[in-house]
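User: I'm new to structure prediction. If I give you an amino acid sequence, what do you actually give back? Let's try with this one:
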Amino acid sequence: MEVIQNVLHKKDTLVVMPTGGGKSICYQIPALIFEGLTIVVSPLISLMKDQVEQLRQLGVNTALLNSSLSAEVYRNNFESVKNKKAKLLYVAPESLLKDDIINLLKSITVDCITVDEAHCISEWGHDFRKEYRQLGRFRKIFPSAACMGLTATATPRVQDDIVKNLNMSEPKRFLASFNRENLFLQVVPKQEPFQQTVEFLKDHPNQSGIIYCFSRKQVDNLHEDLSDLGYSTKPYHAGLSDEERSRNQDLFIKDEVQIIIATIAFGMGINKSNVRFVIHYDLPKNIESYYQEIGRSGRDGLRSDCLLLFSYADIAKINYFIDQKEDDVERMSAKAHLAAMVKYAESEICRRHPLINYFGEPYDTFDCGMCDNCLAEEKELIDITVPAQKILSTVKRTGEVFGMNYLIDVLTGNDTDRILSNGHQNLTVFGIGKEYTKKQWQNLANQLVRKELLIRNLEFGSIKLTERASGVLFKNQKVLGTIKEPEIASKKSKRAEQQAYDAELFELLRRRRKELAEDQGIPPYIIFSDKALAQMASDYPQSEDDLLKISGVGINKLERYGNTFLSIIKKYCARKNITGGFNKNQNMITGRRRSRNNSSQILKHIIVGESYNYGASIKELAEEHGIKTQTIVTHIARYAGEGHEVRIDGLMEQLSLPEKEHIKVFHAFKEEGILTIKTIFDKFNGEISYEDLHILKIIYLNKLQYNM
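Assistant: Good question. You get back a string of structure tokens that encode the predicted 3D arrangement of the chain. For your 708 residues, that looks like this:
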């Protein structure tokens, strides 16, 4: 409220607020109160379109001027501003000094100039854009207008640069907390990244997410591999045409595609509220990028998971590109940014300490309950002194000039050509670590780095001993740690609330929302967020007054969509005999029994298929119908074969076949067809069970019919 009042008093304002924290409200409310126009400068066309559509859904007259519009639409928007009908104008920075735009804005009253993603104006920011530099000149043309800069990522130095370059006059700074409490932060050593990603996705079925990769090639490869396993993905990078990038982004925003796999080219300002996870397949170049990218998840306030796969090979890769920079200052700045990112990834304390402190905000909570390190404190530590001494001795005896992979090869007795040429097969440490796997040694070595017993040269990747290492090597000082290979945390955090809503009703509401969104050509979350649907599926509103109590439901949306959603809820409650309160398990069970009793004429595979889609597990259905789980799977496969969509979560866990074999089966389906599973069974000489083949058939059909 204080920010809004400052703007309404026509005072220059700088707002640093985390992604999803409500920055847009800071200028949208003043825009409705001001008599004149509020200009919003935004860097991306997709961002502008998204925000304009949301405002129009709320009944706010909003205009957009950029190169993506047809001549007719551009002219209509232009006239809307000229005739003083529009309250807000969204425009790209490169358009602001065009003669027609300047003359248009000079002819009306401009009350506020808002610069979104304001860190782009600073050379010390992580996403500097030259076209932003002209904004200071533009501001001088309208000195009586309030000037507001908005950003989610700005260190104190970048804040000063924003104020200077926007020619702000005695601005007031509003710095919101950088702590996004609903984001679960996790860093895992990158060992088998594809398999690690698949395991993570199994825990997030049918959820919307973003996977960030370092290169275009990695994006394309990962998209192809995950698609082959039945996941709904699309790529996004600068190597694609503008049309394809726009189409893929639109499919993701509208929930037509669940996962977008992208380079850092994707996402700035994307206001999709129901992103449930972000995976960093490769190490980000700096904390600013990392923070902004994870901030694209959980905007609805519900729990979202952020996984970073961390390897030292990624550091070398980033360093290589940094070294190509010709400007010494730019190169030094990039290395400093990278060092801070690595420090965060290696930290053994609460993840929020290095992350939030980086932006100049104190953070002294002992246990956030929402990161891997805070949860890891519950794990039992054991004495790892002996394996630690083996690693340290190997580093010492090989001269402290080799990387981790080489050292592990020496430890495990792997006589590679390089080891043989260096004569290291003759060292006493050669082969002394055969009791552990390569992954376990990697985990142990990473722990020693975090404990500051080893130090890694970020530029060359070589490992050296620290002064503290001598105490372990020569004084037998104890080292505590873990031997077990690190896993992706699936354990619920202390603060992760179990969502007490009716999953079946939620799905009915979600489907109707999607239909309405498709009819209007807008993203589903613009109609209602997942959070709003979850609350509807928890509170069972029965009247317009009840519906207005739901988060995100106002008068405008009540008039547009209220009757539609109330009708679904009322019919559902009548069918399930729900009058108040909610016992999820009981309602699910009685609902299925009622469905079975009232549908005796319906074929069993349809009953099973529908019950499975409503949330019943294969085990539950087997117990309810008194048949084997394999028979349930066969029913579901038949249901899918008749053209019905089937959720695939819950099926993957039933598979005994290794991931790498799935693609072979899919290729066989493509060649032989899916009408007779026996043909496929014989093709693989009976080595793949019928149950696995039926499950893979379901996944394959979903992939074909629903672009998964």
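You can read the tokens as a compact description of the fold. Here is one thing that stands out. The CA atoms of residues 532 and 550 lie 6 Å apart.
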